[in-house]
Design brief:
This protein has 13 helices and 8 strands. The protein has 329 residues and is an alpha/beta fold. It has one domain: Rossmann fold (3-Layer(aba) Sandwich).
């Protein structure tokens, strides 16, 4: 049973309990850096690449598409983030000859944030399939980070003919949660919690996603503090809350043996979010090794001196791992 003191202690880290990069949900406190704190609408986010939007699967969907005839890589971001979190990967992967598609999942970034959407793992996966239809692509390599990896696994279990291969970065969905743990997470991460998280937690929470925080990541702080003033931030908060519930309600860990496509798992040795530091503890390697042992012929790469946001903190190593894996397969 969780005590009142324990609940208070983990209040600022509840999203980390779901073992994803959910600490990005907090607002900004004093950092020692100057930040523009003017409101920023989601449509004004600068990903460094142009985006396209149209209605897909009943909602407005936004994405970047490099075009070209190379093998398509569909980049699927994690909880509370957006396509901009691939900014260190898009260029190198595109330059390596791939067709790179980075999507804003419904509820996130420049995509629509409907109140009526189911926000389930299955619905996210279906939406990505419909995006491939729209782009006239039969299949793509799904590259998912954290929650995006769980969605990618769901897509492979739904329609393996649409998924050419899987690249799972710091994947959620491999660590299992007991029913009581899952219910507690779902009940704790409400839209109100996302909206009201105190401002003084941002730096410690963001830093927990990294082995070594660097000045180049300061854009996360500014983006988060400004988006909290967006007119549809409440819809974003709702999407985050429903996404946490969806990850709990749509587990894939017990079906890993059914994955039939080539799979690469990449994780940071110093991931502070997987396994769940409050509910489970232990070593990240143990979780990832267990997951890789269940997926037929899965390959596993551990990146030293890297945390949960491995695609940003160790971008070069991650990019090289993706390039080598996809080109060999």
């Amino acid at each position: 049973m969780y005590t009142h003191r324990h609940t208070q202690h983990v209040r600022y880290f509840l999203l980390a309990l779901a073992a994803f990069a959910s600490t990005l949900l907090t607002a900004c406190g004093g950092s020692g850096f100057y930040h523009n704190d003017a409101a920023m609408e989601f449509q004004d986010f600068d990903y460094g690449v142009p985006t396209t939007s149209t209605e897909i699967n009943g909602t407005l969907l936004s994405w970047y598409d490099s075009g070209g005839k190379g093998t398509p890589l569909l980049l699927v971001h994690g909880l509370a983030s957006n396509a901009g979190f691939w900014r260190s990967n898009i260029g190198p992967l595109r330059d390596a000859g791939f067709r790179v598609i980075a999507v804003d999942l419904p509820g996130y970034g420049k995509s629509g944030k409907p109140w009526s959407a189911p926000y389930s793992m299955e619905w996210f996966a279906e939406t990505l399939e419909r995006l491939l239809d729209h782009l006239a692509l039969k299949k793509a390599v799904f590259v998912g980070h954290s929650m995006g990896a769980q969605i990618s696994l769901t897509a492979a279990l739904r329609s393996s003919d649409r998924v050419a291969a899987l690249v799972l970065l710091s994947p959620a969905g491999i660590e299992s949660f007991k029913r009581g743990e899952g219910d507690w997470l779902k009940n704790s991460v409400t839209p109100e919690f996302v909206i009201s998280t105190p401002q003084d937690r941002v730096r410690a929470n963001l830093v927990s996603n990294f082995y070594s925080w660097r000045d180049e990541f300061e854009w996360m702080v500014e983006e988060r503090m400004r988006m909290s003033k967006a007119h549809d931030f409440d819809r974003f908060a709702y999407a985050v809350s429903r996404s946490v519930a969806a990850m709990v309600d749509g587990p894939v860990w017990q079906r890993l043996g059914d994955i039939t496509v080539p799979t690469l798992i990449v994780y940071g040795e110093n991931d502070n979010l997987i396994p769940n530091p409050y509910l489970h503890g232990g070593r990240t390697a143990s979780v990832m090794e267990w997951g890789a042992s269940r997926i037929p012929s899965a390959r596993l790469i551990e990146i030293p001196c890297a945390g949960h946001m491995v695609q940003l903190e160790a971008a070069s190593a991650v990019n090289n791992a993706i390039i080598d894996f996809v080109k060999k397969d």
